[in-house]
Amino acid sequence: MNKTNAGKLERLGIHTDMELVLHLPSRYEDETKLTSLSEAMFRRIGHIQTEGVVTFSEIQYRPRRQLVVFISDGASQLVLRFLHFYASQQKQLAVGKRVRARGELRQGFNGMEMIHPAYKIVDENTPLPDALTPVYPTGEGVSQNFLRKAIHEALDKIDLSDSLPDALLNKLDLPGFEKSIRYLHNPPADADENALLDRTHPVWGRMKFDELLAQQLSMRRARIARRRQKSNVMKAPGLLTKQFIRSLPFSLTDEQEKVIAEIREDLVKAYPMQRLLQGDVGSGKTVVAAIAACHAIDNGFQVAMMAPTEILAEQHFQRLNEWMEPLGISVVWLNGSMKKKAKEAVLSSIESGQAQFIVGTHALIQDGVRFANLGLAIIDEQHRFGVGQRLVLRNKGENAGSVIPHQLMMSATPIPRTLAMTFYADLDVSVIAKLPPGRKPVVTRLIDQSRRDEVIERIHAATLAGRQVYWVCPLIEESEALQLQTAVETHALLTEALDELSVGLIHGRMKPAEKQAVMTDFLEKRVHVLVATTVIEVGVDVPNASLMIIEHAERFGLSQLHQLRGRVGRGSIDSVCLLMYQKPLGDTAKKRLMTMRETNDGFVISRRDLEIRGPGEFLGARQSGQAMLRFADLEKDVDLIEKAASLADDLLSGKLPDSDTIISKHLARWLDYREEYLNV
After folding, report:
1. Could you give the domains of the chain?
2. Burial environment of residue 182 by CB neighbours within 10 A (0 to 12, 13 to 18, 19 or more)
3. For the chain, which has fewer Cβ within 10 Å, the N-terminal or C-terminal residue?
4. Is the pTM of this model over 0.90?
């Protein structure tokens, strides 16, 4: 293949012949049937393929430049209209040429017409195809004809022999690989087109299974490889950890105790912990992380905690410092906006080992940060960081590359079971499912934007009772496209309407010091109402806030809405979340808002969110460098996920004959060079 064509394919993420063959059709066109022009005129609507001889071909300039072509079979005629065309097309579509055109029929000024039909020049004896015509996902500069030809050539070049033995295929009730792949690229005319389109056809089942098996094998191999790496073996927790637990003003829940025990088991092993701690907003993940940190510090190691925003990082720092300072632990924090002198002092304390617990943002993974003895890396809201970023933090320290720090990742976005089985198969997962005692569920109500005055009255009532209020807006400044109320505008309106109250404003474009000053005022009850953008989505903990108003709630995703709602109800007082919406609502927005009204359960919400958005968007930045599932559906293909996971375990444990050969052939076909990205 020449460089130009190779470049075209690379733009689609295709680098090898096998990747080309696995570039499967998104739909099909039926070119096996021909509708006569007379029948087409009778039908008047619908997607058809017809044929006729060009009787008229001209570039017209009114109402706009366009190529107009008439085709006829002697009895009826059809107009083909091209609003965008090349000069060569007029020559192709010259009078007297026979054209086979395919497209949507519609009524035009000169009778029935097709706008921008697909077409080819034929003669009277040109046969119709005997198979459905595949339509592939494509990109700029890559035509369907080019892809079809390239895929056809690749199919004849590469090894399509099965990676799985016949006995296994029979047991799993799966068709052969070659049969499946050729069928998908070239389905017969009588193929069940609906089953192909909705991917329920058995040949699609084979593709999905193979893809899932490759992922399961790769993730499990990553876990096995991790267990061959060295990490610092930590002794049982010492005096510091015991003192810390005794100093807490509350008792740990049974679920927290269970998770702490799981983490302790990991820390005493000779290979690095890679554990994901998931728990709903307010479930007490931070205190679990702090106890894990005490365990590491007890053993003479440094701990780093990385958070995605400065507000969240600073709040973590303040809370941890409050807990740790009385115990003589040095907690420092590092961010990108620190002044040079202060930053140098912090960097020096980290490098010398004086700083025992380091809290920060992405600033922790900059080149200038050198740890004396990093034993544990904690990553909060881990889905906000890419694989590469987490890897950089893991590789920090004196013994980088030879001794790997233990890693604890935290997420307040509960992960549905099918998602955990697929994308987190390389991690050990701990769950805090229940909220601490005394926490009441937040009551959620939907309210039309037109009832704004009632909402302001509600704010009055809450502040008279000594409570504080959040008002969240989706934009900072006016956008003509969205026509949303802005945070700045809302702040001005509320300041006027609530003139006896203090109304604060916080958004992402403020300087960190300004944001922190506003948050401090809110925490210390000097600000009654805080107007904010989604910068408060994660981490900010104000126990006295009992009312959350989310404006234009229909514009937010489910996960965001749930995170924002979790900012209230942090204490034992009754809390309310008002979701203000603008009519008319689309189907997706309705589903989101109804879900929020129906449940406070983060796992139910995350499952619905996954259904609405799909895994790619749900997982966010975790996918930096990680192959996404292209064919399998995490909701519909649960049985295939379970079968693939079970077979991966059997193959890796050597239970089946020729396990190593099967694994290497299967992974070479499906992942090739990309497997390295999964092993982090």
Report:
1. 33-128 (2.40.50.140), 239-432 (3.40.50.300), 443-599 (3.40.50.300)
2. middle
3. N
4. no
